[in-house]
Structure formats: structure tokens, C-alpha cells
Amino acid sequence: MSSTTLSAVRSWRPSLPRRHVPVLATLALLLVMYGVGVSQYRAFSNVQVVFNVFIDNGFMLVVAVGMTFVILTGGIDLSVGSVVAMTAMVSAALLRDGLPAGLVLVVALLIGPALGFLMGCAIHFFEIQPFIVTLAGMFFARGMCTFISDASISITDGFWTGMSQERIGNPAGNFVSISVLIAFAVVLVAAYVLAYTRFGRNVYAVGGNAQSALLMGLPVGRTRIAVYTISGLCSAIGGILLSFYTLSGAPLIAVGMELDVIAAVVIGGTVLTGGSGYVFGTVLGVLVLGVIQTLITFDGSLNSWWTKIVIGGLLFAFILLQRLIGIRFK
Amino acid sequence: MNTVADRLRPLTGHRLFWPAVVLVVMIAANTVYRPGFLAVEVKNGHLYGTPVDILRLSAPLILVALGMTLVIATGGIDLSVGSLCAISGAIACLHISGAADQNSPATVATALALAFGAALVLGAWNGVLVSVIGIQPIIATLILMVAGRGIAQLVTEGQIITINSGPYRAIGLGSFLTLPLAILIALAAALLVAAFTRRTALGLIVESVGGNAEASRLAGIRSRRVIFLVYVVSAACAAVAGFMVTANVSSADGNAAGLWIELDAILAVVIGGTSLAGGRFSLSGTVLGALIIQTLTTTVYAMNISPQTSLLFKAVVVIAVCLVQAPAFRARFRRRRRGGVEPGPAAPQREKEQVPA
């Protein structure tokens, strides 16, 4: 009886659910940064600036969504940047050889998930740490890039250039690219899968405690292999979007992207030990990184290396925040 | 046949057996492909030849991998070493480039001390994040890995700083008693670490912390202090490696110096038989692992394959080594082969019984 009154008393306090704090902190950060931008630079309030953040980071958004699945299970995928590059490279090479665009799309979208599936199997069946397996995957995919070609290959295919140049806009002249719409579709599907399907709940359960999940009879192995396959698929889609964006495949493109993506996911409030986080947070995390880039571009006097330092600082702040919340919970 | 296998078991069961076989096979293949591979000659008091080059170029990797071994032995991982290499090299080169006399030993000594001190501070930062605040090592060091490249570029202002300093160049290219100075430094570091960990109880303490930090703390070991210390040591090793990398080319490039070296170092540690879960480590294995990686890289270069494609070969090596070392894989393999043959001791158990040399 007393316990019910106690919890009733506690619920009177207008407190936020603890698990929402990181996401809300990211949202606040994003609004503050946007506010700073608007107050400093007149052109910043232009709607197109916001659209450009999406256009420039659409591929990263898709990759980060895939990474969110992996990190939610408590794993990590270091291969994403290389898989993005490999997908772009394969598409460019196949298009150069004259294959039809539809076939190229299918092939390019199959390689990433296949690699992800293999990595997931190695992680699950042979109990090798995700870090090492995906590191090997990263080496493999990056090696394949230069194996295909040492130089960048430009894409002249009609479908690709069409996708690249198509502008979807409003009468005021603001526009987004098709890539942004694809990225949004991926985000919506991922959010639905995580929130409302049995698979989504399995992902959270495995990340919360794989042992308990196993004892509850959840398909831990299948879930684990599936998240790496999903991450591979998202990287492949990201690679296609990147090839739409740059209209080429370059062997050294997206080097170090996995770190930016991990940073975005963490800044978005997903806990790296797994079990807690949202796709919406990841979207915010990517936007934070995008707005930092935009602010630095607008400033003009700051150099690009400040981006890395600021991202490092934010990463630190959010990890500390998560840690503090974790301690309070205990 | 069984008796031969039994007699060889002490040898084949040794943790360094398979890495050594890989290295020998690689050298043999190289010698077949290129008969002059093993030739070494003395010119003007310097040793020349591919084996000497491999040793000299592997020195930074050996250093970084030594620090990484200790970190991994405590169950952690240090992703920031590549960035630390870049930062230490950048600070040293910046100080030398601003000096009036770049060849003066005092200038070089000050530059090295400055850069070394900065690396120790950054190592302490990693150590505090992991041991005091309790952040997962992979994430704690990820912060410095991302921000560190930015800091290195900030130090060099995005330029490549070129210097013309004899004493500094000697760290990478000089030789002492006909042997490359770089490999002597790496060797000295290896012996120093080995002496500290294997001639005192420190190694045991590190392994105990890696096995179970909480249990070690309850047993009276200051786990946090040990964990803090290994990150500082790792940063110090990375700093010296950074000096070598920048001295090799007499310039500091914030972007390229020490790029990917953390991954190579982790690879070297894993090839050397140190478990990524922590709890036991092998310094000799790490040195062997670093030599294997450098030999592989040199081989790929010699075959006129682009450096990036060498990653493809590394991927194959990583997976092969990990699979061979994975208890789950061994168990599967053994089960399949068992029919008729005597069961033999389970591999994972034997692993645990091995007392580190």
C-alpha cells in the first residue's frame, strides 16, 4: 500500500522520463546552435540552409540509422565507411562497363548486406568481438575499392545524373534532392521497425542483456546477425546516395566516416553499451554534426579541423551526460 | 603418426608457434619470388637490405603495439594512438621549425621533451576518462581519436611542416653500430616494458586487473591506478612512434602521420596471441605480430600493388588469425575431426593453463 502512495507522490513531480534526457539535450543543443547561427548570420535563417544540411548529410543519415541498430544491440560496426565507398565504387565501375542502371542498383545493394551478414555470422557463431570482425570488414571493403580502381570513376549514366539533379521544391524556390526523400523513408521504416515490431523489441532486449534475452527464448543469434545485415544494407543505400551526390566513385571517399557516424549516434543519445536509444535521436545527432559544419562554413575564419575538435568535445559531453544519468539511476 | 603429433605438441602448442610459422612462410615466399630479398650489405657503416628496411619501418608499429598490449591486457583498447603520433610529431616539428638552429641538439631535445610531455597529458586524459569516470575504453579513446586529428592540424595550421634537422632525422633514419637507430629504440622500449612487467609483479597486476578489475580491487590492487597508468604508457609509446614517423620524412602532416596505426597495432597484438578480452598478454608475441604486419606490407609494396589494396590482405590475415584463436571455432573444428582420433585436451582450457613466459 505504502509503495503505491510513494510512487503516486513521485509521479506528482513534473519530471522527465530519464531515458529521454539525452535526446532532449541533443534537441536543445541543436536549437541553441541554430539560434546562434541565425543571430550571427543573416542568411542563416534561410530555409534552404536547413535543406542543405539534409542534402549534404542524407547519405550519412542512412548509414547512422543502420549503425543505431548495431549499437542498440551493444555491438559496433567499423566497416560502414568502407562499405559506403565500396558501393559507390562498384556502381561507378559497373556503369562504366555499360550495365543497365537497374541491374547496377540491385548488385550494389546486395554486396553490403552480404558482407554484413557474413560479419554477423562470424560474430555470432565464432564469438569473435564485433570490433575485430568489422575491422576486417573495413580492411576488406577498402581494399576492394582500390582493387577495382586506383583512381576515381565518374558516372555519366542518365538515371544517376537524373537522380542527382532532380530538385523537389516549393514555389519559394527552396528544394531538396531525391536522396533526402530516400533518407527520410529509411528513417521512418527504421523507426517503425524499432518501435512497433517484434524484431525491434528483440534488438533492445539483446542490447539490454543478451544473456537474459537468450533465457527468455528470444532469437539472440538471429537478431545479432540481422542488425549487421541491416547496417550493411544501410551502408549500401548510403553508398548509392553518395554516388548520386558526387556522381562518381572514389577509392578514398568516406575515410573515417564510421567515426563520424558513431559520434552522431552517441550524440543522439544512444547508449554505447546497448539497449537504450532512438532513431529520432540519431537524426538529431546527424543534424548537430551538419549544423556544426554549416556554422564553420558560415564563419569562414575557422578551419575545418575545428569540426573535429568540436565533435570530439560534444562526444565527451554526451558520454559524460549518459554516464551521470546512469549513475543517478543506480 | 599420433606419437609424432604428441611429441610435437609442446612446440605446436606454444603461443608463438603459429605466428612464427606465418612469418617464416612469408619470408620464404618473398625469397622465392625475389631471390635478393634476404641480401644484406654494409655500405658506409650502414646496413642495407630489405630485412633491415622491414626492421626499421616496423619500429613505430612495435612501439605503439607495446603500449597497446598493456592497454588490451587490462581489458581496454586505445584508439587514440594514431592521433597521438600525429600530435607529438607535429609539436616536435613545430618547435624545431621555429628554432634558429635546427641542428642544435638542445633544440631537438627541447622539442622532444615538449611533445613527450603533451602526449603524457593526453594519455592521462584517456586514463582519467576510463579509470575515474568509468567510460568504456573504446569510446573514451574515440574522443581523442576524432579530436586529436583536429588538434594535430591545429598545431600545424593545416600545413605540412618540413624541417631540416640532422639530429631529429636520426631518430628515424640514423644508425648506431651499423644497426638502424629506430629499431634499437623500439628494442630498448620492448626490453624496458618486459623488465617492468615480467621481472616485477607489475605484469601480474596488469593481468589480474584485466581478468577482473573489481576482484583485483578487493584483493588490494589499486585497479584504477593501474588502468590509468597503462593509458599513459600507451600515449608515451605513441609519442615516440610519432617522432619516428615524422623523422622518417622530415616533416609533420597532421592528417597522414600515424594514420591507421591504431588498427595495425591492435592487429599486431591480436596476432601475437593477446586476447582482446584482457587478462593475459605476450610482449614477444606483439613484437612478432608487428614484424608480420610490416613484412606483409613490404611484400605487397614489392609486388607493385597499391598500398590501399594491401588492406585486402590484412583483412584475410585478421580473419584467419581470429578464427584460429577463437575457442568456438576450434571447438567446431575439433568436433568435426574427432571421429576415431583420441579426444585431446580442449583448446580453450589449455590456453588458460599456459603461464605467460
UniProtKB/TrEMBL annotation, chain A:
Gene Ontology CC terms, in alphabetical order: plasma membrane
Topology versus the membrane: Multi-pass membrane protein
GO molecular function, one term: transmembrane transporter activity
Segments passing through the bilayer: 20-37, 49-72, 102-125, 131-153, 174-195, 225-245, 278-298, 305-325
InterPro entries: ABC_transp_permease (IPR001851)
Keywords: Cell membrane, Membrane, Transmembrane, Transmembrane helix
Localisation: Cell membrane
Protein name as catalogued: Galactofuranose ABC transporter, permease protein YjfF
Organism: Micromonospora robiginosa
From TrEMBL, chain B:
Claim: Transmembrane is one of the keywords in the record: yes
Spans traversing the lipid bilayer: 16-34, 54-74, 81-100, 106-125, 132-151, 171-196, 226-245, 257-278, 285-305, 311-329
UniProt cross-references to Pfam families, sorted A to Z: BPD_transp_2 (PF02653)
Its membrane topology: Multi-pass membrane protein
InterPro entries associated with the record: ABC_transp_permease
CDD domains reported for this sequence: TM_PBP1_transp_AraH_like (cd06579)
GO molecular function: transmembrane transporter activity
GO cellular component terms attached to this protein's record: plasma membrane
Statement: the UniProt record of this protein carries the keyword tRNA processing: no
PANTHER family: ABC TRANSPORTER PERMEASE PROTEIN YPHD-RELATED-RELATED (PTHR32196), GALACTOFURANOSE TRANSPORTER PERMEASE PROTEIN YTFT (PTHR32196:SF19)
UniProt protein name: ABC transporter permease
